[in-house]
Amino acid sequence: MVAEERPAFPGYLDDHAFTLQAILSLLQARWDDGLYSFAIQLAERLLAQFEDPEHGGFFFTASDQRAPVQRLRVLQDDATPSGDGIAALALQRLGHLGGAVRYLDAVARLLDSARAEVERYPLAHATLLNALDEWHGPPPQVIISGTDVIEMEAWAASVRRRGRL
After folding, report:
1. What is the distance between the alpha carbons of residues 114 and 124, in angstroms, rounded to a whole number?
2. Which region, left, alpha or beta, applies to residue 110 given φ > 0 means left and ψ of -120 to 50 means alpha?
3. Is residue 164 in a domain?
Protein backbone atom coordinates (compact mmCIF):
# COMPACT_ATOMS: atom_id res chain seq x y z
CA MET A 1 0.00 0.00 0.00
CA VAL A 2 1.36 3.42 -0.96
CA ALA A 3 0.98 6.13 1.62
CA GLU A 4 -0.96 9.16 0.43
CA GLU A 5 1.49 11.95 -0.26
CA ARG A 6 0.80 15.50 0.80
CA PRO A 7 2.09 18.42 -1.24
CA ALA A 8 5.15 20.18 0.15
CA PHE A 9 3.65 23.60 -0.59
CA PRO A 10 0.08 24.87 -0.80
CA GLY A 11 -1.39 25.59 -4.21
CA TYR A 12 -1.66 29.23 -5.13
CA LEU A 13 -4.04 30.99 -7.51
CA ASP A 14 -1.69 30.52 -10.46
CA ASP A 15 -1.44 26.77 -9.82
CA HIS A 16 -5.21 26.37 -9.84
CA ALA A 17 -5.90 28.73 -12.74
CA PHE A 18 -3.22 27.32 -15.04
CA THR A 19 -4.26 23.75 -14.23
CA LEU A 20 -7.89 24.61 -15.03
CA GLN A 21 -6.81 26.17 -18.33
CA ALA A 22 -4.73 23.08 -19.19
CA ILE A 23 -7.64 20.76 -18.44
CA LEU A 24 -9.92 22.79 -20.71
CA SER A 25 -7.31 22.52 -23.48
CA LEU A 26 -7.23 18.75 -23.03
CA LEU A 27 -11.03 18.59 -23.11
CA GLN A 28 -10.99 20.57 -26.33
CA ALA A 29 -8.80 17.90 -27.92
CA ARG A 30 -10.58 14.91 -26.40
CA TRP A 31 -13.52 14.78 -24.05
CA ASP A 32 -13.17 13.00 -20.71
CA ASP A 33 -15.95 13.09 -18.10
CA GLY A 34 -13.45 12.65 -15.26
CA LEU A 35 -11.39 15.63 -16.40
CA TYR A 36 -14.53 17.72 -16.76
CA SER A 37 -15.51 16.85 -13.17
CA PHE A 38 -12.00 17.78 -12.02
CA ALA A 39 -12.28 21.10 -13.89
CA ILE A 40 -15.48 21.86 -12.02
CA GLN A 41 -13.82 20.98 -8.70
CA LEU A 42 -10.95 23.37 -9.49
CA ALA A 43 -13.37 26.13 -10.51
CA GLU A 44 -15.33 25.68 -7.29
CA ARG A 45 -12.11 25.87 -5.25
CA LEU A 46 -11.10 29.03 -7.11
CA LEU A 47 -14.38 30.67 -6.16
CA ALA A 48 -14.51 29.36 -2.59
CA GLN A 49 -10.89 29.86 -1.57
CA PHE A 50 -9.40 32.58 -3.81
CA GLU A 51 -12.16 34.99 -4.89
CA ASP A 52 -12.23 38.43 -3.28
CA PRO A 53 -15.90 38.57 -2.22
CA GLU A 54 -15.75 42.30 -1.51
CA HIS A 55 -14.08 43.66 -4.66
CA GLY A 56 -14.08 40.83 -7.23
CA GLY A 57 -11.02 39.17 -8.68
CA PHE A 58 -8.82 36.63 -6.98
CA PHE A 59 -6.19 36.65 -4.27
CA PHE A 60 -2.85 34.95 -4.88
CA THR A 61 -3.23 32.87 -1.68
CA ALA A 62 -6.21 30.79 -0.59
CA SER A 63 -8.36 31.89 2.31
CA ASP A 64 -7.04 29.00 4.42
CA GLN A 65 -3.35 29.85 3.78
CA ARG A 66 -1.16 32.14 5.76
CA ALA A 67 -0.30 35.17 3.67
CA PRO A 68 2.88 37.17 4.28
CA VAL A 69 1.66 40.64 5.44
CA GLN A 70 -1.52 40.76 3.35
CA ARG A 71 -3.36 38.80 0.70
CA LEU A 72 -2.32 40.20 -2.66
CA ARG A 73 -4.29 40.46 -5.88
CA VAL A 74 -1.94 40.47 -8.86
CA LEU A 75 -3.68 41.66 -12.01
CA GLN A 76 -0.64 42.53 -14.12
CA ASP A 77 1.14 40.03 -16.33
CA ASP A 78 4.79 39.48 -15.53
CA ALA A 79 7.12 36.86 -17.04
CA THR A 80 4.01 34.67 -17.07
CA PRO A 81 0.37 35.71 -17.47
CA SER A 82 -1.38 36.78 -14.28
CA GLY A 83 -3.37 34.19 -12.34
CA ASP A 84 -6.37 36.52 -12.44
CA GLY A 85 -6.19 36.75 -16.23
CA ILE A 86 -5.87 32.99 -16.68
CA ALA A 87 -8.67 32.41 -14.14
CA ALA A 88 -10.88 34.82 -16.10
CA LEU A 89 -10.23 33.03 -19.40
CA ALA A 90 -10.66 29.54 -17.91
CA LEU A 91 -13.76 30.33 -15.85
CA GLN A 92 -15.60 31.97 -18.70
CA ARG A 93 -14.75 29.10 -21.05
CA LEU A 94 -15.94 26.59 -18.45
CA GLY A 95 -19.00 28.74 -17.76
CA HIS A 96 -19.97 28.75 -21.44
CA LEU A 97 -19.21 25.06 -21.84
CA GLY A 98 -21.37 23.94 -18.93
CA GLY A 99 -23.86 26.80 -18.71
CA ALA A 100 -22.53 27.73 -15.25
CA VAL A 101 -23.63 31.34 -14.75
CA ARG A 102 -21.81 31.60 -11.42
CA TYR A 103 -18.45 31.25 -13.21
CA LEU A 104 -19.45 33.94 -15.70
CA ASP A 105 -20.60 36.19 -12.84
CA ALA A 106 -17.19 35.78 -11.15
CA VAL A 107 -15.48 36.80 -14.40
CA ALA A 108 -17.77 39.84 -14.70
CA ARG A 109 -16.85 40.93 -11.15
CA LEU A 110 -13.14 40.45 -11.91
CA LEU A 111 -13.24 42.41 -15.17
CA ASP A 112 -15.22 45.18 -13.49
CA SER A 113 -12.79 45.40 -10.56
CA ALA A 114 -9.77 45.52 -12.89
CA ARG A 115 -11.22 48.06 -15.32
CA ALA A 116 -9.41 51.19 -14.04
CA GLU A 117 -6.03 49.49 -13.84
CA VAL A 118 -6.38 47.87 -17.27
CA GLU A 119 -7.43 51.19 -18.84
CA ARG A 120 -4.47 52.96 -17.23
CA TYR A 121 -1.83 50.33 -18.14
CA PRO A 122 -3.23 48.18 -20.96
CA LEU A 123 0.14 46.73 -22.03
CA ALA A 124 0.67 45.33 -18.54
CA HIS A 125 -2.64 43.45 -18.65
CA ALA A 126 -2.60 41.53 -21.93
CA THR A 127 -4.18 38.41 -20.43
CA LEU A 128 -7.05 40.37 -18.91
CA LEU A 129 -7.51 42.12 -22.25
CA ASN A 130 -7.75 38.70 -23.91
CA ALA A 131 -10.35 37.72 -21.33
CA LEU A 132 -12.24 40.95 -21.99
CA ASP A 133 -12.12 40.31 -25.74
CA GLU A 134 -13.59 36.82 -25.23
CA TRP A 135 -16.15 38.31 -22.85
CA HIS A 136 -17.52 40.51 -25.63
CA GLY A 137 -17.26 37.84 -28.32
CA PRO A 138 -17.10 34.29 -26.97
CA PRO A 139 -15.55 31.82 -29.40
CA PRO A 140 -17.92 29.39 -31.11
CA GLN A 141 -18.27 25.93 -29.61
CA VAL A 142 -18.51 22.79 -31.69
CA ILE A 143 -19.24 19.55 -29.86
CA ILE A 144 -18.91 16.33 -31.82
CA SER A 145 -20.39 13.33 -30.07
CA GLY A 146 -21.19 9.77 -31.03
CA THR A 147 -20.04 6.19 -30.90
CA ASP A 148 -18.66 5.80 -34.41
CA VAL A 149 -15.03 6.91 -34.08
CA ILE A 150 -14.43 7.08 -37.82
CA GLU A 151 -17.50 9.22 -38.40
CA MET A 152 -16.63 11.52 -35.48
CA GLU A 153 -13.10 12.00 -36.85
CA ALA A 154 -14.53 12.85 -40.28
CA TRP A 155 -16.74 15.51 -38.68
CA ALA A 156 -13.78 16.88 -36.68
CA ALA A 157 -11.64 17.04 -39.83
CA SER A 158 -14.42 18.93 -41.62
CA VAL A 159 -14.63 21.47 -38.81
CA ARG A 160 -10.83 21.86 -38.70
CA ARG A 161 -10.75 22.59 -42.45
CA ARG A 162 -13.16 25.44 -41.85
CA GLY A 163 -10.88 26.84 -39.14
CA ARG A 164 -13.25 26.32 -36.24
CA LEU A 165 -11.35 23.75 -34.18
Report:
1. 12
2. alpha
3. no
What residues have CB less than 8 Å from 155, skipping those under 6 apart?
144
Residue 96 placed within a domain: yes
Which residue range is the domain that position 22 belongs to?
13-138
In the chain, the number of structural domains is 1
Residues 6+ apart with CB under 8 A from 122: 129
Does the pTM exceed 0.70?
A: yes
Strand partners, 58: 51
Tens of pLDDT along 44-100?
A: 999 999 999 899 999 999 988 876 777 889 999 999 999 999 999 999 999 999 999
Count other C-beta atoms under 10 Å from residue 44's C-beta. 13
